[in-house]
Design a protein that fits this description.
The protein is of the alpha+beta class. The protein contains 3 helices and 2 strands. Helices cover 54% and strands 15% of the residues. The radius of gyration is 17 Å and the shape is extended.
Length: 80
């Protein structure tokens, strides 16, 4: 029987593999239409610091410019 540590390592690797595969989706020859709905708070909360947040926002912006089949929609925290 495997130890819990080994099982966790395999589960972690499975998650990493899944995420890496998902990141390749936009560049496929026939990519799916991708629509992401993000809460405004997630775009203003500097988890990891402001440099990390700046990089994440730049990545979202670049992705929507590079791949027209990707849409990012932001849901406001409160009504206007």
């Amino acid at each position: 029987m495997r130890s819990a540590c080994v099982l966790r390592r395999h589960a972690c690797q499975d998650r990493v593999d899944f995420r890496l595969e998902r990141q390749r989706l936009p560049a496929r020859a026939a990519p799916p239409r991708m629509w992401f709905v993000v809460g405004e708070g997630a775009l203003t909360r500097p988890v990891g610091g402001y440099d990390v947040l700046r990089g994440q926002l730049a990545h979202l912006s670049d992705a929507t410019e590079q791949w027209p089949h990707i849409t990012v929609q932001v849901v406001r925290n409160s009504p206007p």
